[in-house]
Amino acid sequence: MVFSSNPLSLSVPEAVFESWLRDSGYIEVLDRRTSTSTATTSSSAAAAGDGASAAAATATATATGFLVSSFSGIVTILSLFTFNPFSKLSTDDFSGQTPSWTIAFFGSFDSYSFPASPSQARLRVHENVKRYARNYASLFILFFACTLYQMPIALFGLIASLALWDVFKFCSEKWDLDRYPLTQQCFVRVGQCVGAIILMCSNVQMALFCALAISYAALILHTAFRKLTPAKQRTRGRWK
């Protein structure tokens, strides 16, 4: 979709305009606009280089363009670690239905492209995190389960810790510890200490750290390279 130029649009703050695009289901317009402007700049530079008469000048321009492109790509990748990808995430993003894994989440080969600038990468990350929050949560659970499978001691420690709390709950109900708050608090503190010791000795924290690291890396790469797609499905009759 192409918007005609409007002088009045200059008075609209960028945050308000982005919010309107997101609410209207046209947030992908910003992604396409950034890619288009970058492609136009690259094409202009290439055309200027073709007009050079000397082969040495053309080679120099090509090498310079390659270095600039490489440096820009490195800056874009490093910029992914300079902001919080969950800053715009809310609890409402987990309340909807899980997007399709094949069509919506993974998509096709054409659904991915290298972000043209740090601002485009930031836009993609923030928007895709909101859209696929339930998918990323499921991936974290999957990675954590795989990590525990590779670390049987950690799996045993986690199960033992959960079993300890079930035993405590059973004993609390059987002995009616609610009538003795001080005794109940003592049991809670002892249970917490024992549970923490079990988790530390079985390296559950290491399994959790590995799952978090892998999940975060997968999230950053997917959100940055995944193109923004229309958030709302539009019927053909609407565009006729």
TrEMBL record:
Domain of life of the native organism: Eukaryota
Keyword rRNA-binding: no
Membrane-spanning parts: 63-83, 139-165, 206-225
Keywords: Membrane, Transmembrane, Transmembrane helix, Transport
Primary location group: membrane
Biological processes, Gene Ontology terms: vesicle-mediated transport
Gene Ontology cellular component list: endoplasmic reticulum; Golgi apparatus; membrane
Membrane topology annotation: Multi-pass membrane protein
Localization of this protein: Endomembrane system; Membrane
Keyword Transmembrane tagged: yes
Pfam families with a match to the protein in the record: PRA1 (PF03208)
PANTHER family given in the database record: PRA1 FAMILY PROTEIN H, PRENYLATED RAB ACCEPTOR 1-RELATED
Cited function: May be involved in both secretory and endocytic intracellular trafficking in the endosomal/prevacuolar compartments.
UniProt record similarity statement: Belongs to the PRA1 family.
Name this polypeptide is given: PRA1 family protein
Organism of origin: Parasponia andersonii (Sponia andersonii)
